[in-house]
TrEMBL record:
Locations listed in the record: Cell membrane
Alphabetically ordered keywords of this record: Cell membrane, Lipoprotein, Membrane, Transmembrane, Transmembrane helix
One GO term describing the cellular component: plasma membrane
Domain ABC3 transporter permease C-terminal, first and last residues per copy: 290-407, 671-785
GO molecular function: transmembrane transporter activity
Protein name: ABC-type transport system, involved in lipoprotein release, permease component
Length: 792
């Protein structure tokens, strides 16, 4: 029986080749995102599963009750670990982790950036991070010992054995390499390049800070993990944690409580502040799944619509089956098998797309850490089960429609009139058009917002300026040597990159004002203001007198207004003390400029002169041959004693990178929009084709009666155009409202959604939709009436 059903299904699908292709391609596109989502789920739910006894490993999280935001932190006070180890029963091992190990690691001539953790010796006993060399129990037992991953060890030492070698890190002195660690798997929520002994942190900061009461309220970057014994009772440990919190926070301003979080619940899990490593919020996972349904459900709806739309052609087949004794479940099975075959073929195509489109593209599109989406046995099982489920669900509705038709009506080829079915079909098409218009508008608006941001007048010079990281090189030598290059017009120094990110903010107490003043600042030299072509409204800039410069600041208009509300220019010459106690005087006032980008409104800001803070050199170039100039500069860098690599970037490129997150949104929404529009057009093509085919005789009679081709095209297209219009009327105001608020939240200086954005978006979708409609209606309107009426 099953073999017979499969044969009949294949014949019917082959007979209706066009609609089979439309269904298969539409389902394949819809299922592609679903396969990605299934692979992602398979990856996320095997996070941290390589640790033995992972069900007994817990992290202590902190719930702060501040009567406002009540944030929950992944971190916890370090002093808590001592109480867990000394006072609690049922705990086998406790490990403190502090993620402050960051800096430049130096071995002879080699220098690399190293990031990792300080951890207790129990770290390698709780977690299964295999050591290639060294002992798990002793690798972190002494101060100034460190364990490197294989990749980092190779960077520093090459083919040489790293065990027993000494490396230097600024701020911590020398480290003895006591272990080499296998590179971490992707499915670990902890990602680090090195682990140093926690005793190193204690020897540098002293043990007193562990007992300090402030340590219980300031615990950023510190984490407590434990492995409990097999017979331990989690509620008992949780009760003891509650008692500790009550004792420690009784007399403190903030109140907090501690909670146990199982290792398997970290990824995926709740979004916590101060998270360690990769996190994947369950809400984010839900939203991701919802996005896949946005494309999958319309594809399934297209299949249902096209299946029911074939009612006239399938009616006699169903009638003959019923007259010859076909049972309801036989007819039901036939339609389920047909839909399942279509879905399985679509699954094969979707899997080919899944393999062809590189996962690197997916990483770039959503900018997440690399994840392993390669299919496993579990993933393949999920793919097949998902396809069978989709096949059954999509086959049920057409099956229910046909099995309810009386045999006599079916033999006559009489279609059952059902207004609900028509409403459902129309609603599906309208919804598809809404998603298509919405995604298209999102992309168009983000493109214009990105262009607006990178081409905005920031109030300073950004073209032909090269920013170079000084990396502790002698500033005067750098300025002299690079200033003599033919390609360099002028050189200035600064502590930060202007207009990118944010500048440090300070609270300044002004003696002649009641309220303190909050202002951001940057340290620059005497050439910076002129080099960046900032406009000086009053007063003067810094001079060549370095001693005098140390007691001067140059402020923007907002700062001047705060100092002298009635006459901002009167701020010139006013004196006050900075946060470091230095007495300074306002030397000049600059026209407002965007020192911290466009995300926030311009606030009080000042330039100070402090060479100890200089981190960048700003080179004003006289040439467009940047590539040629860089080669000369790299050579000169080695000659003046530059230790690390010569690191430089054009200012204009840094501005673009600062707004690269718009590119992320454009790629993501553009990708989803392309899938949505494609699925919509495929479904529309099928529906238009079927609706025109059902009206061939009506069209022929109208032509004989003198109807023009244009009037027939309008007649056949009218309903679909109305649906497109309804979708536009619903979507455009909703998207306008959404983006008017979204853009303002994302960036203070942003575009206003305009008529042009709406017109371009609607134009793209309407052109594609109308092209799809007219491709079928024009063909139907030009058919020969004799071909359709000769059997009458």
């Amino acid at each position: 029986m099953l073999k017979s059903f499969v044969k009949i299904a294949c014949r019917i699908l082959y007979k209706n080749k066009l609609f089979t292709i439309l269904n298969v391609v539409g389902m394949a596109l819809g299922m592609y995102l679903s396969l990605l989502f299934i692979a992602l789920l398979a990856f996320l739910f095997r996070f941290d599963n390589f640790h033995p006894h992972n069900e007994r490993i817990y992290r202590v999280t902190t719930q702060v009750n501040d009567k406002k935001d009540n944030p929950r932190y992944a971190s916890a006070p370090m002093a808590l670990a001592q109480q867990l180890e000394n006072s609690f029963t049922g705990i086998e091992k406790v490990a403190r982790i502090h993620r402050s190990l960051n800096g430049e690691a130096i071995y002879r001539e080699k220098k690399i950036e190293l990031a990792g953790y300080f951890a207790d010796p129990g770290f390698f006993e709780i977690f299964n991070f295999p050591l290639v060399q060294g002992s798990k129990t002793t690798a972190l037992s002494r101060p100034n010992t460190i364990v490197l991953t294989e990749t980092e060890a190779e960077k520093l030492f090459g083919s040489k054995d790293a065990m027993g070698e000494m490396i230097k890190m600024d701020g911590y002195g020398n480290f003895l390499v006591t272990g080499i660690l296998k590179d971490l798997p992707d499915n670990s929520h902890m990602q680090f390049e090195a682990v140093a002994s926690f005793a190193t942190l204690l020897s540098n900061k002293g043990t007193a800070f562990l007992q300090d009461e402030k340590d219980w309220s300031s615990f950023s970057g510190s984490y407590v993990y434990m492995r409990i014994s097999e017979d331990a009772k989690v509620p008992t440990i949780q009760h003891n944690l509650d008692e500790v919190a009550k004792r420690q926070y009784t007399n403190q301003e903030i109140k907090a409580s501690f909670h146990l979080q199982q290792l398997n619940d970290i990824v995926p899990g709740p979004q916590l502040y101060d998270s360690l490593g990769l996190t994947w919020d369950k809400l984010l996972l839900f939203v991701t799944g919802l996005i896949t349904l946005i494309v999958l459900v319309p594809a399934c709806s297209n299949f249902i619509n096209l299946s029911i739309a074939q009612s006239l052609e399938r009616m006699k087949e169903v009638g003959v089956r019923k007259v010859l004794g076909g049972q309801v479940h036989h007819i039901f099975s036939q339609f389920i098998i047909e839909s399942t075959i279509v879905v399985l073929v679509a699954l094969l195509i979707a899997y080919v797309i899944f393999e062809v489109i590189p996962t690197d593209y997916i990483y770039q599109m959503v900018e997440i850490p690399p994840i392993d989406l390669s299919p496993s046995r579990v993933t393949f099982t999920g793919f097949i089960v998902f396809a069978l489920l989709v096949g059954v669900v999509t086959g049920i509705i057409p099956a229910l429609y046909f099995i309810n038709i009386p045999p006599i009506d079916a033999m006559k080829g009489k279609e059952v009139k059902a207004s609900g079915r028509s409403y459902f079909r129309n609603a599906v098409l309208i919804t598809q058009f809404m998603f298509s218009i919405g995604f298209t508008m999102a992309v168009v608006i983000m493109l214009r917002q990105q262009h607006y941001s990178v081409n905005y007048d920031f109030g300073f010079e950004s073209e032909n300026v090269l920013d170079v990281e000084l990396q502790n090189v002698n500033q005067q030598i750098f300025k002299h040597e690079y200033g003599n290059l033919l390609s360099v017009q002028s050189v200035s120094m600064s502590s930060h990159i202007l207009g990118v990110g944010s500048a440090p903010e300070h609270k300044i107490n002004i003696s002649f004002q009641a309220d303190s003043l909050e202002a951001s600042s940057m340290a620059v030299d005497e050439a910076f203001i002129q080099n960046m072509k900032l406009e000086l409204l009053a007063g003067s800039s810094f001079s060549d007198d370095k001693l005098k410069n140390a007691h001067l600041i140059v402020v923007n208009e907002e700062f001047a207004k705060k100092l002298s509300t009635k006459d901002p220019l009167a701020a010139i010459g006013k004196s006050f003390a900075l946060t470091d106690g230095r007495e300074v005087q306002v030397a000049g006032i600059l026209k407002n400029f965007h020192y911290a980008g466009l995300k926030e409104a311009i606030k009080p800001f000042y330039f100070e002169y402090d060479p100890t803070k200089f981190s960048y050199a700003n080179l004003k170039l006289e040439t467009n041959d940047v590539a040629g100039s860089l080669k000369t500069m790299e050579t000169l860098w080695k000659n003046i004693g530059g230790d690390g690599d010569f690191t430089a970037q054009l200012f204009s490129e840094e501005i673009k990178q600062a707004y690269s997150f718009y590119n992320l949104l454009i790629r993501l929404w553009g990708f989803l929009g392309l899938l949505a529009i494609t699925v919509t057009c495929l479904g529309l093509l099928g529906m238009v084709s079927f609706s025109t085919r059902k009206r061939y005789k009506e069209i022929s009679i109208r032509k004989i009666m003198g109807a023009s081709t244009e009037s027939l095209v309008l007649l056949l297209s009218k309903n679909f155009m109305i649906m497109m219009a309804i979708a536009s009327i619903i979507t455009v105001p909703a998207m306008y409202y959404l983006f008017s608020h979204l853009l303002a939240d994302m960036q203070h200086y942003s575009i206003q959604v305009s008529f042009i954005d709406v017109s371009i978006s609607l134009g793209i979708v309407l052109v594609l939709g109308l092209t799809t409609i007219l491709s079928q209606t024009w063909k139907a309107a030009n058919t020969n009436p004799i071909d359709n009426l000769k059997s009458e």
